[in-house]
Amino acid sequence: MNSLKRHHIILCLFYLKFGQLIGFNLIQNVKCRLYECCSPPYLPNNFSRLENNLNKSLFGQPLVKNTIVSALKGHFNLNGPKKALVMSFHGSTGVGKNFVIQFIANAMFERGVKSKFFKLFIASRDFPHNEKIDEYRETIIRSIEETVKLCHTNLFVFDETDKIPIGLMDTIKAYIDFYPEVDGIAFRKSVFIFLSNSAAKDIAQLTLSFDKQTINRNDFDLKVFQNEIQNSIYHNKEENEKGLWHASIIDSYLIDFYVPFLPLERDHVRKCILAEFRNYNYTTNGKGASINTISDDDIESIVDEHIFEPPGYTKYSSSGCKRVPFLVRTFIYKKLLKVTSAKCLNIEQTRKERRNSKIAITQWGWAFNKP
């Protein structure tokens, strides 16, 4: 009897546990249909898509494409990363740093930059005052730990690190170091990316030097740029006590890749302009006569709106492709306005001709019927 009771108890416990498991899975399935979860399809990690997008839409940056695609594939596709992946993007304005971040987020998360597993910190917005560094540290720690608790796959982006208070970036050192866990949380599948204009002059000078040697930028040596960037940001203090000057995350070699974004030439700006026009379903036909077409002269007129430097060489756009969306929108608006005005003028001319015809007919009829 005791044996039978024990059997019934075990069976009941089994069914109870089984029912709980089914119920939990059912709730999770319903929840994940409504909200973002830490599982497919919300985590596609589609780096082939990233590679295709970079090849299609990022111009003049072969070192960027080769570095970040390999880094991300290696981090996520091979088992057991020993630490979080850390990359630092450097270059002047308008060369594609934030543009690439959007592509990476879209490859990692179904919801891209709107994912709750994506966090963006902007120095001038989030960390403007040096005297509040302790408060900023708490904000960073809380945000990172809460996000990683939600999901093991996440992306943290720190923009304008050249404007961040000195010492603040060392707050994340424990999260990107070679620790299996920190306070019971594993950060090894996380990705941290820093964006900065620092070392832009060094990158431009190296690019100019290689160009003068007629070395194609596809053949540039990445190591030369990485060493130059690392030395520049570590030893050169930014204005107002900002930047990564003497940061321990640098001298501890915790930044895995320094990624140089090269200055853009006229041809790269031209490609940016063409790509922007395609977003509005415009095509090129050499004449630009119809409403949804543009001519080669139209493209060149927008390219000429840019300033190219250095003086005497005038090869690199001082603003990269940053002004392209505004210039293209302005061009389209002016063209639409011109076409609309021409149509209105034609309509008015037609109306005027009709009025004149009616007057002439009336006068002719009056003259004909005159006794």
From TrEMBL:
It comes from Brachionus plicatilis. The keyword Signal applies. GO terms for cellular component: cytoplasm; endomembrane system. The lineage of its organism: Eukaryota, Metazoa, Spiralia, Gnathifera, Rotifera. This is Torsin-1A-like. It comes from the Eukaryota. Residues 1-23 form the signal peptide. GO terms for biological process: cellular response to misfolded protein. Keywords: Signal. Pfam families: Torsin. GO terms for molecular function: ATP binding; ATP hydrolysis activity. Belongs to the ClpA/ClpB family. Torsin subfamily.
